[in-house]
Amino acid sequence: MTNLVLLLSAEAEHSAGPLGIPNVIWQSVNLIGFLAALFYFVARPMTRLFRQRQLDIERRLQEAQERRAEAARLESEIHERMARLDRDVAEILARGVAEGEAARVELITRAERDAESVRRQAEEEIGRRLEAARQELKRAAAELTASAARELVAAQMTEEDRRRLLTESIARLESRA
């Protein structure tokens, strides 16, 4: 080991750099400077870039979670509205069926009432026409009877009967006056 130290010290004396500083130290300082420059100009901006990228990803993740929560809320609202619409449609349908049934019953009742009214009016019209026909028949029978009686009286009446009837009629008129 002593040989190695002597060898290194001997070589160190032979490889002296500027200002008499051994090359190993210059190389170490140069390496440290290079690493510092690399860290300052590359690593720090890269760290900042990665940090900014991480913040952007976290922000986007947060926005995505908020959008997902909003979408879930909207989906819940839509399902709620759909359920409400289904209930409303069912209620409207039930109300429509009930109203339709009530209207049908009302129409049947009204039709029955109208039919009864028409029947009653028809019976009344038949009764009036029947009575008118009876009256017409009585009048015709009376005219025929009067006509037959006139013909019979005219055929059996003599001139003397006519004078006597005329005299009686005049006497009645005079007594009244």
Q: How is the topology of this model organized?
A:
Elements: H1 2-14, H2 23-156, H3 159-176
**Range of strand content:** under 5%
Uncertain segments: none
> Number of helical runs?
3
Largest sheet: none
Radius of gyration: 68 Å
Order of helices and strands: HHH
Q: Give the averaged pLDDT, no decimals.
A: 85
Report on this model:
The chain is mostly helical and 177 residues long. The chain contains three helices and no strands. It has helices spanning 2-14, 23-156, 159-176.
Keywords:
single chain, 177 residues, mainly alpha, rod-shaped
Q: Concise description?
A:
93% of the residues lie in helices and 0% in strands. By secondary structure, it is mostly helical.
